[in-house]
Amino acid sequence: MRMRGDKIKKTEEEWRNELTPEEYAVLREKGTERPFSGKFTDTKEKGEFLCKACGNKLFSSDTKFDSGTGWPSFDKAIPDAIRYRIDTAGGTERTEVVCAKCGSHLGHVFDDGPTDTGKRYCINSVCLEHGNKKEK
């Protein structure tokens, strides 16, 4: 593993060895989990949600809401925790959300959120850990 500044750089072989097949498929290959199948879809636990790949703090439970979409949804990310990319896969343009520290795919953000931010970060549960675990 190489670190560049505070960014993590690993080979895909290293990621494949560290992540489960499902985690790898979503985090590294931009997959998605089935709606309503993730362990954090309905959780109300307080605390922080971290990147499953690197431990980077991404979202606070205070920003989580029930969007009814089948994935954990948040209206705001922790400052500087994520980056955005244009995603044109599937024939439509969406905004992909990736971890700022390791570049792993997390989900997408939409401008239809019900709070004053107007945002809905639709994030795969498999990409998240809950709690205050040490960064990897």
UniProtKB/TrEMBL annotation:
It catalyses: L-methionyl-[protein] + [thioredoxin]-disulfide + H2O = L-methionyl-(R)-S-oxide-[protein] + [thioredoxin]-dithiol. The keyword Nucleus does not apply. Residues 12-133 form the MsrB domain. InterPro entries: Met_Sox_Rdtase_MsrB (IPR028427), Met_Sox_Rdtase_MsrB_dom (IPR002579), Mss4-like_sf (IPR011057). Its EC number is 1.8.4.12. One of its GO terms (biological process) is protein repair. The keyword Oxidoreductase applies. It comes from the Bacteria. PROSITE patterns: MSRB. Pfam families: SelR (PF01641). Gene3D superfamilies: Peptide methionine sulfoxide reductase. Coiled coil: none annotated. Its cofactor is Zn(2+). GO terms for molecular function: metal ion binding; peptide-methionine (R)-S-oxide reductase activity. Keywords: Metal-binding, Oxidoreductase, Zinc. One of its GO terms (cellular component) is cytoplasm. Belongs to the MsrB Met sulfoxide reductase family. This is peptide-methionine (R)-S-oxide reductase. The lineage of its organism: Bacteria, Candidatus Lloydiibacteriota.
